[in-house]
Amino acid sequence: MGVLSKTIILSIAAPSTVVIAQAEVTLKPDRPFLWVQPGQTAVLECCYTNKGKLESFKWIRYFREGNHTIGPANVNLTDLVTQDVDSKTSCGVLNFLTVQPEHSGMYQCWLKDSKRFTHGTYLHVYKPVEKIIDLSEGTKNKILMAEGVLLLFCVLLPSAILLYQSKRHNNLEMKKVKMQEENIYEGLNLDDCCTTYDQIERSQTQGQYQDVCNVMEEEEEIQLEKP
């Protein structure tokens, strides 16, 4: 029974010790991401508080290779990639003297004593877009101003042409109507007009007399037929 009770006490006490050790460590916010160009320097930090105590740690890395994510992998320290410790702020520091594209990835610290990962920082090494035509800011402003003037002409010129054509068409129509009004009596012969008028009057008068005679003849014929 004595051995069994000691075993139970140890099994209960061991997890509580781990919980207390983890509770003593507080992780500080890390920089979420860092963008740098190839050849530049980069500094990553993982900070924590542990009542003034420094923990042993190591840097690990997750990175993409094709369509797969590889990690956690230990960061290889070289002359260009070094590791330091800032005792004042309790931070682990990873220095890149010359960043290369293959250094891109997610970097975290593994705290060995408390067995915890820090939040981590994503390092992205990008290649800037090369300029095909290198123009100064003054030249760019002049080009933009010229484009604005051309755009203004493209909008105003067609409108002005349409207005001019519409006004010209209206003037031609007014002149045409005026000329028709002035020439309405040109080319007419007054003698012919009088002769035509007399013929019309004479034909109307003769027609009336002929109608009266015809009526009288019809009445006589009707009377002669009676017994």
From TrEMBL:
Species assigned in the record: Labrus bergylta (ballan wrasse)
One Gene Ontology cellular component annotation held by this UniProt entry: external side of plasma membrane
GO BP term (any one): B cell receptor signaling pathway
UniProt name for this protein: CD79a molecule, immunoglobulin-associated alpha
Positions of the Ig-like domain: 15-109
Classification via InterPro entries: Ig-like_dom, Ig-like_dom_sf, Ig-like_fold, Ig_sub, Ig_V-set
Source organism phylogeny: Eukaryota, Metazoa, Chordata, Craniata, Vertebrata
Keyword presence, Transmembrane: yes
Keywords of this entry: Immunoglobulin domain, Membrane, Signal, Transmembrane, Transmembrane helix
Domain of life where this protein originates: Eukaryota
Segments traversing the membrane: 143-164
Keyword Repeat (UniProt): no
